[in-house]
Design a protein that fits this description.
Elements lengths: L1 E6 L3 H17 L3 E4 L13 E5 L7 H5 L7 E5 L6 H4 L7 E4 L4 H9 L5 H11 L5 H20 L8 H12 L3 H19 L5 H12 L2
Parallel strand pairs: 1-4, 1-5, 2-3, 3-4
Helix pairs in contact: 4-5, 5-9, 6-7, 6-8, 8-9
Amino acid sequence: MKIIVLHGDDTVKSYERLMKFVATAKKRSWDIIYDSFPNTPSLFGTERLIIYRDYTLLSKNDIKNFDRFDGTLVVYHTAPLPQTFIKLMPADFKMEKFEMSRILFSFLESFYPGNQIKTIKLLHDLTKTQPIELTFFMLARHLKDLYVASIDPKTNQYPTWRLSKLKSQSDKFGIEKLKQIISNLSDIDIEVKTSKADLLTELDLLMVKQLE
């Protein structure tokens, strides 16, 4: 079995990579199976693409018995995978890690009350290197992670060090503030998609109001 692991913070690029595997499999008329291994051989000998979207569904026994299965396995995770899992993989597996730019990572970490000047500067620096829409997407996802970290951190499948950072940052907001900002982002998304607002301007205003 060919094994490919896709993971990292840059979920846009990792998802695009996953979709390329799916598109190739469809073009070649492969069977595509999600989050489980087939119990029986392919009836007509058709090649299989098996995609696991949750690495925790793979038991140690599954990993030890990869050779029992035919086809290509893709393990996809929307964050860096823990080293404890990677070390369980067979020696010949292929791994692709998709990491956010350092400026984007700094922007997300700087997004908290009392830090509006630095956050706005980093936002405008980001517009020089990547689409504002991508920054908006990553900010929305990050704020949802902060909200989850504030109410039930165990549901976030992130390494302990990252969960600790998320919890520390979420504590600077409080649950109600996070809920308000997430709601604001939803409103901004609608306004921009209906051509009633400019995304960069709306994000500037959001940070001026919410990070003062």
